[in-house]
Amino acid sequence: MSSSTVMQYLPLVLIVVVFYFLLIRPQQKRQRDRGALLQSLQAGDQVVTIGGLHGTIAAIDGNIVKLRIAPELEVTFERKSIDAVRRDAQ
After folding, report:
1. Region 37-53: what's the mean pLDDT?
2. Residue 85 sits in the same domain as residue 68
């Protein structure tokens, strides 16, 4: 390969590297963090669902989470529908 051929491909290689560090790598980190959050859920955690519903986890059975939203009212959600844990409320 001559140096002119390398110079032709250099901008393309640089674009790929920039996309990796600016887009792909941060997205992978967010996915790992979200997976860790979902695995760390416990009964008693105060959470917010993707739809904005606030409640306390009453029970977890595999991928099913029972969320207490009122003293006598529990609703069932998929574990992946939990958006955030409200640690400040505990």
Report:
1. 95
2. yes
Under a CB-based contact definition with an 8 Å cutoff, are residues 64 and 78 in contact? Answer: yes
**What percentage of residues in the chain have a pLDDT greater than 70?**
97
CB-count exposure of residue 64 (10 Å: 0-12, 13-18, 19+) = exposed
Q: Which two tokens stand for residue 33?
A: 């963090």
In the 8-state DSSP scheme, what is residue 43? T
The number of distinct structural domains making up the chain is 2
Instruction: Indicate the pTM of the whole model.
Output: 0.73
Domain of 2 in residue numbering reads as 1-40
CATH number for the domain including 62? 2.30.30
The encoded tokens of residue 88 equal 């400040």
- The pair of three-digit structure tokens given for residue 64, joined into one six-digit string: 């099913």
